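Hi all, posting the design record for the shared folder.

TITLE: backbone redesign
STEP: 1 of 1
STRUCTURE INPUT:
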C-alpha cells in the first residue's frame, strides 16, 4: 500500500487527508493519506523515508514550504521562483518539489469569471502562500500588485522575488479592484483585520481562509456590496493537482468533494 502525507506545524486542522482519502477510495487506489506534525529536526528523516519509498508523496504546509527546499534534488520552475513547495514526488530516484498552490489559486479565480487582466490587486499579508498568489496574478496579467504586511520587512523580501510589486504600509488602503486576505487573521472567528475598507464598493474580496467559511473580512466585503469568495476552491484545486501528479488519475470535483471542505 502506498503512503502519502501532509506535513506541517500545526497540521491538525488540515482537511487534506479527508479529501485525498475520499479520492483514493472512489478511484480504488491502494493507498492511504495521513497527516504528521513535524519539528524541523524531523525533516531529514522524512526525506530518508521518501527516498526509501516508505512514503510515496508529501504535501507541505506552514511553516515548511520554503524550509523543505534544501532537502530536495530538483524544483519545478514555479517552485523555484516562488521559493515554495507544497507537493513532493519521486521521479527517477530524484526528489522533486512542485507548487500546486499557484494553479489552485488561478483556477479558483477563473471559476468566478473575474478577469484579472489589467486589474489592480491588493494583497494583505506576506506569509507562505503569497509568492504563489503573486506568481498566479502575474500570469493572469494583473496590471498592478500591491502588498501590505504588518511586518514590512517581510513584504520587502517579496520584492526580491517579484520586482514588479509595490509595497505599502500596513493600514494604508490604496485603490484596488480586488483585495486578497492572505493573513492568518480570521482563522479564529472573532479575529478582525481592523482595516478601514468602508470605501470599497463593487470590488472583489478573496479570502484564502476557508474554515471558517465566512471570515469577518468577507462579511465586511459583503456588507458593502462587494463580490466575495473564500479559499475553498483554491484548496480543492491544489489537492486535485497533487493527486494527479502522484496517481496519474484526475479525480472528480463534485458536490461530495466540496462538502468535505465546507
Ligand atoms: P508565516 O508568516 O510563517 O509564513 P503564514 O500563516 O503564512 O505564516 O502568514 C501569516 C501572515 O498573517 C503574515 O503575513 C502575518 O503578518 P506578519 O508578517 O506581520 O507576522 C499575518 N498576520 C498574522 N497575525 C496578524 C495580525 N494580527 N494582524 C495583521 N497581520 C497578521
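Okay, here is what came back for every position:
SEQUENCE:
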Amino acid at each position: 500500500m502506498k503512503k502519502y502525507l501532509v506535513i506541517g506545524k500545526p497540521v491538525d486542522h488540515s482537511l487534506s487527508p479527508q479529501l485525498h482519502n475520499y479520492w483514493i477510495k472512489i478511484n480504488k487506489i491502494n493507498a492511504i493519506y495521513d497527516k504528521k506534525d513535524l519539528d524541523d529536526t524531523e525533516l531529514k528523516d522524512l526525506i530518508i523515508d521518501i527516498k526509501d519509498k516508505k512514503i510515496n508523496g508529501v504535501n507541505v504546509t506552514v511553516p515548511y514550504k520554503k524550509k523543505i527546499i534544501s532537502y530536495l534534488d530538483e524544483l519545478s520552475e514555479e517552485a523555484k521562483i516562488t521559493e515554495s513547495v507544497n507537493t513532493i514526488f519521486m521521479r527517477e530516484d530524484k526528489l522533486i518539489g512542485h507548487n500546486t498552490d499557484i494553479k489552485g489559486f488561478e483556477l479558483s479565480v477563473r471559476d468566478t469569471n473575474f478577469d484579472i487582466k489589467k486589474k489592480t490587486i491588493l494583497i494583505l499579508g506576506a506569509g507562505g502562500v503569497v509568492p504563489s498568489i503573486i506568481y498566479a496574478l502575474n500570469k493572469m496579467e494583473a496590471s498592478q500588485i500591491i502588498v501590505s504586511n504588518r511586518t514590512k520587512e517581510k513584504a520587502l523580501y517579496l520584492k526580491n522575488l517579484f520586482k514588479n510589486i509595490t509595497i505599502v504600509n500596513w493600514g494604508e488602503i490604496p485603490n484596488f479592484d480586488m483585495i486578497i486576505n492572505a493573513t492568518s487573521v480570521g482563522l479564529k472567528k472573532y479575529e478582525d483585520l481592523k482595516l478601514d475598507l468602508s470605501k470599497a464598493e463593487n470590488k472583489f474580496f478573496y479570502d484564502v481562509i476557508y474554515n471558517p467559511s465566512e471570515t469577518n473580512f468577507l462579511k465586511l466585503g459583503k456588507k458593502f456590496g462587494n463580490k466575495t469568495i473564500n479559499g475553498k476552491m483554491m484548496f480543492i484545486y491544489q489537492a486535485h493537482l497533487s493527486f494527479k501528479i502522484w496517481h496519474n488519475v484526475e479525480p472528480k470535483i463534485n458536490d461530495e468533494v466540496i462538502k468535505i471542505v465546507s
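COMMENT: Residues 62-63, 125-129, 149-151, 154, 183-185 surround 2'-monophosphoadenosine-5'-diphosphate (CB under 6 Å).
Let me know if anyone wants the other runs.
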